[in-house]
Design goal:
Blueprint: H1 24-38, E1 41-44, H2 51-64, E2 69-72, H3 78-91, H4 98-108, E3 113-118, H5 131-136, E4 144-149, E5 153-156, E6 171-176, H6 183-191, E7 196-200, H7 206-210, E8 215-221, H8 225-233, E9 237-239, E10 246-248, H9 260-268
Parallel strand pairs: 1-2, 6-7
Antiparallel strand pairs: 3-4, 3-8, 4-5, 6-8, 9-10
């Protein structure tokens, strides 16, 4: 899901519609056009989409033999993923190089708290669920507050129910499914001291990701471009020894090469014999 622009500088998103169902030639032509137009392409996809999508994206990248396509599949619920994609669109208007921008996705995930209010956890497999919680989910009217990222949490909603949230100022985005409740906006948002609250449509993958359509998905995030830019620009940058692009971290998001010192460190951890 492509969220509306946060400000006038936010670049528009390109949605790769049905990339795994259309003829390969069409998908290849679309990606080639994007590369020729923009130079580099960062593809942000959900782990909730069919495996065929991931295979098709890797096939396209392989056929084009391009190190200018970064494939990024963070372990975030659908609404959190949409927020992250918009933050990258915000940063794309700045003077960051393509490798640093693509690498920023991993950094910014640490500042996203993503969860949902669920009417049932019977089919939830993204967060550990105890047998007791499973049993309670069959009770009429039961609701559960769940955090999937950054650390799993699950509580049955009652007057004393609490969830640990961000320890820094954030905004909250809420997407309502088929569940009727004001707990997220009336209880959770004030407890987390959010500085602003907005609503969005529920992503198409949310019901499958959370195991139920009776949900209200929420996500807290840093909305200000200046804060996002400061976070990314303050991190030490390096240069990929293989393709020469500037990156953040130990792995190049475009060619997947690992920095030599990290490769050596990994090899030293492997026992001989």
């Amino acid at each position: 899901m492509a969220l509306p622009a946060q400000d006038e500088r936010t670049l528009p998103a390109v949605v790769l519609q049905d990339v795994h169902q259309r003829p390969l030639e069409q998908a290849l032509a679309e990606m080639q056009t994007l590369i020729e137009t923009h130079g580099h392409v960062i593809v942000v996809s959900s782990r909730a989409v069919p495996a065929a999508v991931d295979r098709r994206l890797h096939t396209i990248r392989s056929i084009l033999e391009s190190d200018r396509i970064a494939l990024f599949r963070p372990d975030l619920p659908p609404l959190g993923l949409a927020v992250l994609a918009r933050q990258l669109r915000q940063l794309a208007s700045c003077d960051l190089t393509p490798g640093v921008l693509a690498s920023a996705g991993r950094l910014l995930t640490h500042y996203i708290h993503a969860g949902a209010l669920l009417g049932s956890v019977a089919r939830l497999d993204r967060v550990p669920v105890s047998l007791k919680s499973h049993a309670k989910s069959w009770m009429p009217g039961s609701q559960f507050g769940v955090i999937a990222h950054p650390e799993p949490q699950l509580v049955k909603i009652d007057p004393q129910a609490t969830l640990s949230g961000p320890e820094f100022g954030t905004w909250m985005l809420v997407a309502k499914g088929q569940l009727q409740s004001d707990w997220v906006t009336a209880s959770l948002a004030p407890a987390w001291k959010v500085q602003g609250l907005r609503e969005a449509q529920l992503p198409a993958e949310s019901a499958g990701w959370w195991g139920t359509g009776k949900l209200i998905e929420f996500c807290t995030y840093l909305p200000d471009l200046s804060v996002l830019y400061q976070l990314v620009s303050s991190v030490r940058q390096g240069r990929c020894h293989w393709c020469g692009i500037d990156v953040i971290g130990d792995r190049c998001v475009f060619c997947s090469a690992v920095a030599p010192e990290h490769e050596q460190s990994y090899e030293n951890q492997i026992p001989a014999g």
